[in-house]
Amino acid sequence: MAGNSAPLSPRAKLAVTAGKAAAAVSKAAGRGSGSVIGGKVALRLDPDLLGRLAHHLDVTLVSATNGKTTTTRLIAEALRAAGPVVSNALGANMPAGITSALAGGSDARFGVIEVDEKYLAGVARDTEPKCIALLNLSRDQLDRAAETRMLAEKWREGLAGTKAVVVANADDPLIVWAASSSTNVVWVAAGQEWKDDAWSCPSCGGVLSRPGDDWGCQACGFRRPQASWALNGDYVLDPQGSAWPIHLQLPGRANKANAATSAAVAAVFGVPPQVALERMYQVQAVAGRYDVVTFNNRELRLLLAKNPAGWLETFSLIDGPPAPVILSVNARGADGTDTSWLWDVDYTRLAGHPICVIGDRKLDLAVRLEVAGLDFRVCESVDEAVAMCPPGRIETIANYTAFQDLRRRVGN
Length: 412
Description:
The protein is α/β, with parallel strands linked by helices. The protein is built from 14 helices and 17 strands. A nine-stranded mixed beta sheet has the order 2-3-1-4-5-6-9-10-11, sandwiched between helices. Strands 12-13-17-14-15-16 form a six-stranded mixed beta sheet, with helices on both faces. Helix 6 (about 120-125) packs parallel to helix 7. The radius of gyration is 21 Å and the shape is globular.
C-alpha cells in the first residue's frame, strides 16, 4: 500500500547514490541519459532495490507492443490531479531503467511505470502494483521477443492471483487471454485495427470468428468479454454510460484508445474521467513522437513506427497525398535485427506520396517498396532526403533507433 516513504537502508542509499553517479558520468560522456547504466549499478549493489523504491507508491504498470510510452505519459498526467507522480517518461522500460526512474521519486504518491513485455511479470512481483494496464500484443522484434501466443501465456501465468486491478483491452484476444487469470479485470473496448496476430484462439488453437468488432471461438467458447469502458468516436463511455469528450493534441485513433484506457486507470485511483481527460490535453508530444520540427527550412513531423501494427496506425494519421514521406529503418539491437517484418506492412497505403528512403536497412526497405509498386528514392541521409522532397510538411516515419538518429540530426 502507498504511504509515506520509509527510510532506505544504508545499503539501499549507497546503491541509489552509486547509480546516480554512474548515470551522471554516462550522461557527461554523451552516452544518453545514463538511466540504464545507473539502474544496473544500483541493482548490482542492492538486487531488491526496485521493490524498496516502490514500497511507498501506488504503482501502475503499463505494458503492450504499441502505445505503452504514450499511455504511460497520459496516465501520469491524469494522476497528477491527485498527487505527485514518478514515471519512466523517457521509455527506459526494463528493470534497470525503472529502478533509475523510481530513485528520483521519494516524494511521489503514484508510480506510473512503462514495462517491456518480457519483464512484466517480474516487475509486477517486485513492485506490487495497484493497477496494471494491458493494451495490445502483436509481432515485434522477431529475433528477441517470444511469439505472441507464448508471451500472452507468460503474462497469464505471471499475473495469476495478482491483487492489482487489471485494465485490459477487450478487443484483443491475446490480451483477454492474458488478463483472464486475474480476479479483478476492468475491460475497455479500445479497438484493434491490426488483427493478423489474433485469428486463432489463444485458449484452444481453434479459428476465431471475428464478425465486426466482436470475436469468439466456437470450439471452446472463449470470447470477447463485455466492456465497462469504451472508446466511441471522440468520446470515452464510462461504466455509467456517460460520454466524456476526448480533446488531445496527439493525433490518431490509436491515441484516443490510449486515452480511453488511461481514463479507466485514473478512475481506479479516484480521478474522474472529466478531470483525467482534461489533463491529458497537456501532452503535446511523447519523447519526441509527433513533434513538428524545422530542419533545413522545412517542417518535419516525427513519427515512430516499430512493427507492422505500429506502421498501420501511423499510415492512418499522416497527411494525404501529395504530402512527402521519409521512411527510415534500422536493424540494431534495440530494433531487432530481423527485418522480415517489413513484408507484413501494407506499404501500398503510401501510393501517391513522394517517398524517400534512408536508414541502415534502406535497401531492405527499398526492395519491399519496389515489390509494392511504389515510386521512391533511396537517399544517404536525412539532409539529402529533405532536399529531394517536394513542397509541404514532410511526414517522417522511423523505427526505434532510426527515430533516435533522426532526433539527434534535426536537433529535437
